[in-house]
Fold:
Amino acid sequence: MVVNCEQVWQEISNYLDGDVHPNLRAAMDTHFQECKRCKAVLEGTRNVIDLYGDERMIDVPLGFEHRLERRLEETIHPSRRGFLGWMVAATAAVLAASIFEVAKSSVLNQGEPRSEHAQSGAGVPPNMMVVVSEEGKLFHASGCPFIHDKAHLRTVVAGEAIKEGYTPCVRCMKKYLQADLEQAVDDLAGPKAEHRST
Amino acid sequence: MGAPTSPNYQVDEAREELLIRCVQDGEHEAFYELIRPYQRRVYAAAFAITRNNADAEDIAQETMLKAFKKLRQFRAESRFSTWLIQIAVNEARMRNRRARARVVEPMVEEQDAEGNYVPRDFADWREIPSETLERKEVREKLAEALASLGDIYRDVFVLRDMQHMSIEETAKALGISTASVKTRLLRARLMLRDLLAPGLGGTWSTRLHLAKGTKPW
Structure:
């Protein structure tokens, strides 16, 4: 099988995609060895494909990822407040949790307290996927802006993260912590009622 | 006939499937993790079609929001990345059409050129090394060359060679036949090669506004 230059040009794209019959490929290979012009077309086309396919061609504006995540958050979690609001809420949650701890251990003196990790992560669904970093102490929902050391993240289920000693981030795990707190309130209310009845 | 792939685009499909299921089951936080590998690609697809930074960013955001809202409808018949890029391409094309309608251009769909494309430059190819992509002016010149193509050629080239979609995926995303994809792809690749060829100084100076002999590589 012999091919001329025009046939080569019309098939050069398929040739580069590996989408030509083996006989045609062999004929084109022979042609490229003999025809400098077609060889130049082949090399140039291959160069073009390599250049444009390189990820460095993607030039995103500064802050693009951050703005995208913020916009998503507005839709996915419309009730979430701004950063300051979150800091206040987080501080309040920590304070409230501490108060309950003191109440449970010193006033009611209800048995052995559970481990710090088990308590703080109790409200988080154990099969939920979370991210942790090797150097960090907290586990986060993916996308949480409070994640440190983003370069060394790994994804695990929450139950596993708790076992490994991580505690939930008070920001992104707020709803679970609230559930945890509500449970703590119920726990407190239970013994009180028993105490009154005796 | 596999699509050319880049290691950067390899994702753990099993993990991706798990993340999709998590979001579909209400674990919305998993969505951030799911889309993270594709954020830049979605932007790039939108930018290649609209050629406007602000529009591309807006389209990327709209795409992700749409994907989040429609994820329940996603069926694993196509790859998640293909589905996502398809949403972005549709958004970008719609925006282009609206913009054209505003400048009273007739809404005529571009037609495939008749006849075979004949390369214009046959000088020995002087390779443009991929390292030069680190330089902004090189990326800008490549983007200009791409922008000078007609829409129907550029769209196919973007999906196939920049987004690394297969011929079939590209055809599906654009609603055209695989034969049309191949024809347009051939023309797009050869036209870009001519635009970047070392022997066509005139092309550079007139079409890409570069003085003769001042290619950035």
Q: What stands out?
A: The domain at 130-207 of chain B is CATH 1.10.10.10 (Arc Repressor Mutant, subunit A). Residues 28 and 199 of chain B are 54 Å apart (CA to CA). Chain B is about 60% helix and 0% strand. The mean pLDDT of chain B is 82.
